[in-house]
């Protein structure tokens, strides 16, 4: 690895990942591309993560945060600590194939300047013949989905433009991240990379999927309590639409957004944390209005272009099916 001014900084947020870090960091040491540094941002872990990194991987920079600030804030700390041309954001529950980083760098170098980020071919750790994530996409019903999830990896062997990168293993131009002011810290965790990716796309930049940049991924390696997951995804789902999408499009697509809200209400069976997440969004409307003003200045895409960008098929069961199943469940009590 280069001693100073590396081309790439790999930023790894970590929270109690002592059992995951050795596999992740050992794989990075075996990369064919060498001009990089690793920055582990520790989110107030109470296990021996920092001790392990300092002892077994002394060349790695560790940023220690006093408490768990969430994925978004931890990534921002790592991004701001770097002077590299490119930032790779990487989950600690990954194992990179030897040419993974080389493929990411080659792809961004060969890309036009409007390509801001490169998403990896993330394979399932327990079955590498299947895709975990080949980039993300967002629908007008308010849900983000993993492209290719649980599908055969051989069907995703072609590099192509995609809607959004998955920040679990993606390369970004640092200049674009700084232009976007990084992740939105208010999101804490969940959908923060979708929000950042959407802002990048709205500003006129593009995202690419690198089919040769293969990396294994466990998924949910640093787990948050289920109630907190429901709260954050509910609130953040509404945040990312309300603060980024032009008002006329929001009004045009309101039926789809209501559909999605009702869908997830049934998915979570009306849990109290779902209602708390909705209330937190309403409480955050002043924050949303401030963000909307800033985003309006950065948005380069036209309304028809934005409409097409989010017009993806809904891969879930229908709301009608959920209602029918819920009625059966209630009647069987």
Question: How do the helices and strands line up, and which of them pair or pack?
Answer:
Elements: E1 8-14, H1 21-29, E2 36-43, H2 49-56, E3 61-65, H3 71-80, E4 86-90, E5 94-96, H4 100-109, E6 115-124, E7 127-133, E8 136-138, E9 144-146, E10 160-162, E11 169-173, H5 174-179, H6 192-202, E12 206-217, H7 226-244, H8 247-252, H9 254-267, H10 272-283, H11 285-298, H12 303-309, H13 319-331
Parallel strand pairs: 1-2, 1-4, 2-3, 6-12
Antiparallel strand pairs: 4-11, 5-12, 6-7, 6-11, 8-9, 10-12
Helix pairs in contact: 6-7, 7-10, 7-11, 9-13
Can you walk me through this structure?
The structure is a single chain. Helices cover 42% and strands 21% of the residues. Helix 1 links the parallel strand 1 (8-14) and strand 2 (36-43). The radius of gyration is 20 Å and the shape is globular. With 333 residues, the chain is of the alpha/beta class. The chain has helices spanning 21-29, 49-56, 71-80, 100-109, 174-179, 192-202, 226-244, 247-252, 254-267, 272-283, 285-298, 303-309, 319-331, and strands spanning 8-14, 36-43, 61-65, 86-90, 94-96, 115-124, 127-133, 136-138, 144-146, 160-162, 169-173, 206-217. It is built from 13 helices and 12 strands. It starts with 7 loop residues before the first strand and ends with a helix. The longest helix has 19 residues, at 226-244. The protein folds into 2 domains: 8-217, Spore Coat Polysaccharide Biosynthesis Protein SpsA, Chain A; 226-331, no CATH class. Strands 1, 2, 3, 4, 5, 6, 7, 10, 11 and 12 form a 10-stranded mixed beta sheet that branches. A two-stranded antiparallel ribbon has the order 8-9.
